[in-house]
Design goal:
Layout (H helix, E strand, L loop, with lengths): L23 H6 L8 H4 L11 H16 L18 H10 L4 H18 L1 H6 L3 H8 L4 E6 L5 E6 L5 H9 L13 H23 L13 E6 L5 H21 L4 E7 L5 H8 L5 H4 L2 E4 L4 H8 L25 H6 L15 E4 L7 E4 L2 E2 L2 E2 L2 E5 L3 H5 L66
Parallel strand pairs: 2-3, 3-4, 4-5
Antiparallel strand pairs: 1-2, 6-7, 7-10, 8-9
Length: 453
């Protein structure tokens, strides 16, 4: 099955020409976009295919150590020659710790145990569809579009998080007792959205070669955070919600943010910023850019093509917060069956399923009225992609696995739970990527079977 020739997205505008303007307020609270860092000179520094010699040595040592600690199965020992975690997944933990091996090891080990305790992989596949859609309303939403580098563009409109919507969201979470170390149910709904990003959005964007560096996985998101019309009281009421989400996401989904553009900042925002910046480290705050009204359109258009930017922010896309994603033409060519009508979208969790000799399939999972669903909703047309010499993340389609874990992923008995897990600062939030992939999922225990969270 051959797809039409894909158009090529615009080259990344910040790599040529003058940097976009930043508001006076932004200059006082965020790193100017004109300040060039190592990542700006090589945006893929530390990613697969873009490692310096010291980084490569650290990476090799890291893999050896986690294999010795039975946290990782190398390809030579894995089923079908597959490693338990792909290289891109392991590298995001190293990037989060600036290639400091002890720090990366502590975070990686802690995340593996957290995923096991909360049965994250299975939980996503059995997630109640209605509960999932409730969570979508109070967290960043994918527009269905990508920036000029092929990175998915998300939008978060804070004014939509009023008392009524938050009360409905909190009411929908169960309050049953949790296993020791388990995450609160309402926050697990947030992680269902992260899993959707990992297991559906990022693989889809990775498979499309109409971007710079198609040999490197798409492993992060570009975000517009709209805080226009939000009062100080609403910010205060949302403080706990946003802080808890930031802390846990930082700990277990490192390197998922590329850039955050904050727009509509009110006059009192410096007060709010004094709270927020404490949640993040300097690396993260350097990725947060606060734009004044006159700067919004010009700045965003440096990073996003007009056709992919919502009209509200100066683009041409007829999309607003609360709408389902509207795929760009190239993505529709690849998975045209996914959209059934101009704004129809599959509700609930979706994964990519890979099998030897078959094109990847998008499968709607989760549960409806207590019954699991598993319905193929789209097929990825890979012939055109492979003819361009590109496979997802440089891995054969049947090699893509959930969270970088292959079907022979480490069993519960292989992950030590009784040892010391080195601590790391909960406020750390690194940027630039999480790899995504899909594979076999372990069975969900009766504790979580068809649970509405």
């Amino acid at each position: 099955m051959s797809a039409p020739k894909l158009q090529t997205k615009s080259s990344y505008a910040s790599s040529k020409g003058a940097p976009p303007p930043v508001s006076r307020q932004a200059s006082a609270m965020s790193t100017p976009l004109s300040r060039q860092t190592t990542a700006d000179r090589d945006p893929l520094n530390g990613h697969v295919g873009h490692l310096t010699e010291p980084q490569q040595r650290a990476f090799s040592d890291f893999k050896r150590i986690i294999a010795e600690q039975r946290l990782y199965i190398p390809p030579s020992q894995g089923t079908g020659g597959k490693a338990s975690h792909d290289d891109a997944t392991l590298l995001r933990f190293l990037r989060a710790r600036k290639f400091n091996i002890p720090g990366a090891l502590a975070q990686f080990k802690d995340t593996e145990q957290w995923r096991q305790i909360n049965q994250i992989d299975s939980l996503y596949e059995h997630f109640d569809v209605k509960s999932y859609e409730e969570a979508v309303r109070v967290y960043p939403q994918w527009t269905g579009r990508r920036d000029k580098r092929g990175i998915p563009l998300y939008v978060y409109v804070i004014s939509e998080l009023d008392n009524k919507s938050m009360a409905a969201y909190n009411k929908g979470a169960t309050t049953k007792s949790q296993a020791k170390g388990a995450t609160a149910p309402k926050l697990l709904r947030l992680f269902a959205l992260y899993e959707n990003m990992l297991q559906f959005v990022l693989p889809l964007c990775t498979y499309l070669p109409d971007r710079p560096n198609p040999e490197t996985p798409i492993s992060s998101t570009c975000n517009i955070v709209d805080i226009s019309g939000v009062g100080l009281k609403q910010f205060w009421n949302l403080k706990s919600h946003m802080q808890d989400a930031s802390t846990l996401a930082t700990a277990h989904y490192p390197e998922t943010l590329d850039r955050i553009f904050v727009i509509g900042a009110p006059s009192f925002f410096p007060t709010v910023w004094s709270w927020i910046k404490k949640w993040f480290d300097p690396v993260t705050t350097s990725k947060i850019h606060i734009l004044g009204g006159a700067d919004v359109r010009n700045t965003l258009l440096n990073f996003v093509d007009p056709a992919d930017l919502p009209k509200k922010y100066g683009g041409e896309l007829d999309w607003e917060f609360g709408m389902t994603p509207i795929l760009d033409p190239n993505a529709r060519q690849a998975v045209g069956e996914l959209e059934k009508g101009s704004h129809h979208w599959v509700e609930g969790p979706v994964i990519w399923q890979f099998a030897q000799g078959q094109e990847p399939k998008a499968v709607a999972v989760g549960s409806v009225a207590g019954k699991d669903r598993r319905e193929v909703v789209a097929v990825m047309h890979t012939e055109e992609i492979q003819s361009n010499g590109v496979t997802s993340n440089g891995i054969a389609p049947n090699g893509l696995v959930t969270n970088g874990m292959s079907p022979n992923a480490i069993s519960q008995n292989q992950i030590p739970l009784n040892g010391s897990v080195g601590g790391f600062p909960s406020e750390k939030l690194a940027v630039d990527g999480v790899d995504a992939a899909i594979g076999a999922q372990p069975a969900l225990s009766s504790q979580f079977q068809n649970v509405k969270i």
